Every structure is written in structure tokens, then in C-alpha cells.
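Example 3.
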Amino acid sequence: DADVTQTPRNRITKTGKRIMLECSQTKGHDRMYWYRQDPGLGLQLIYYSFDVKDINKGEISDGYSVSRQAQAKFSLSLESAIPNQTALYFCATSDGGTDTGELFFGEGSRLTVL
Amino acid sequence: GQNIDQPTEMTATEGAIVQINCTYQTSGFNGLFWYQQHAGEAPTFLSYNVLDGLEEKGRFSSFLSRSKGYSYLLLKELQMKDSASYLCAVMDSNYQLIWGAGTKLIIKP
């Protein structure tokens, strides 16, 4: 089983619908992240959390919200989806106690908004 | 602004050597990462450089020059499975990762 699990893996929805992407991890890491990946662009950070009571906006947080339900769970919500939120979304974790801050990614959630 | 530049696409031959360059302009520097991403899959960590010089790890090596804002990833003895995108990322002074758009590497037999 994957250490970082995202659900759903693929989702097609319509404009205006509420969508939740879920992420759970078994790595025991305290830090979790949500990224968005679009063709031709670098990964863009949406939100990140360094522990259960810590939530921080990334560079493209508008239109998104998150919830850190437990150390192992971090969900991303689109309250009212729009077509330009069509993208590949990745959850990632890292161990705050290491020097490198290496990220461990989930397998991705491909979202299409019609 | 902050910027990471790397070539969009490169082609190389199986068994050969390829060098993928990355130049960066960021607010501070706390390390440079290389990740590999196969099509439709998650990125996976390859290397981390924080000091100048070459870090070797099997067939892959990564070089950093902080004064030049420059890094490269060197892949030796290329195999077909090395066909992937290679992402360069820099950790800035706020410990935020700034990502390049990635270099798609195509390996031909």
C-alpha cells in the first residue's frame, strides 16, 4: 500500500459543484501539503500544514480550503469548482525533523471541471 | 520575482550521458532538489544539494554552484526507464519550495 494515499484518483465534475480531495498518510510525518500541477508549469503550492493546528496559505490558495482532521489526514476542498481548476492535484508529506525536507507525494488526483 | 529555468525537453540515446541544467533566481537559498516524475505518476526524490559541488548517487549526479545560481543533473548509462520529467526545485529563505516547470527527457534506443 502507498504511504501517501489520495482519493479520488480521478474526478469529473461540473462548474459550481463542491469537491473534496482527501489525503491520508502512514509515514508519521507532521508536515502535509497540497500542490497543483498544470502542463508547462511548475508545481504550485495551494496550502500546507506543519501540524494539526497549523494551516497556511500557499501561493494559489484562492478558491480552495483545507482541513487537517488528524496528523495523518489533510483534505482539500473546492467550494464552487470552476473550469480553470482542472488540473492534477498532489498531496505530499515531509518530516520536519530532517535537514533535506524531502517530499513524499501521493499518486495524484486528476480533476476535470466542465 | 523568483524564477527557476530548465529546458522544456531533451532527447538522448540509450547508454549515453545527458546533463539537465537548472538556473535559479530566488529570495535566499536553503537547498536545491531534483525530482523525477514519470508520466501520470507522482514526483520522486532524486537528490538534494545545499553546498557547492558534486553529489554522486549511482548513475545520477547533481552539481551545484550557488554563486552562479546553477545546478545540473547528470544521468549516465541511460536506460529506457529514465524517460521521465526531471523537476528542479529551490528552497528559498522562507523554506518554501520554488519549482521549475520540469524537463521532459526522451530516451531513444
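Chain A touches chain B through 17 residues (CB under 8 Å). The two ends of chain A are 32 Å apart (CA to CA).
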